[in-house]
User: Which sequence fits this backbone?
């Protein structure tokens, strides 16, 4: 896990608070089509090691059209 942390720290070194808020606003405004820091969400899922999120499984049995993505 330390190599993963080093990679994250290296990638985000020098990112300002303003850039973080901009990335957050990008995600909130564009959802699945967002590209925080100029990268698509699929890039971030892989980069952050977020495999197996079950994003194709509905999040609520009463609302099967709502997913966890």
Assistant:
């Amino acid at each position: 896990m330390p190599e993963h942390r080093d990679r994250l720290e290296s990638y985000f070194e020098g990112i300002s608070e303003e850039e973080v808020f901009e990335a957050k606003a990008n995600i909130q405004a564009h959802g699945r089509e967002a590209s925080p820091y100029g990268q698509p969400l699929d890039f971030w899922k892989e980069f952050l090691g977020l495999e197996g999120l079950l994003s194709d499984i509905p999040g609520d049995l009463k609302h099967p059209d709502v997913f966890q993505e």
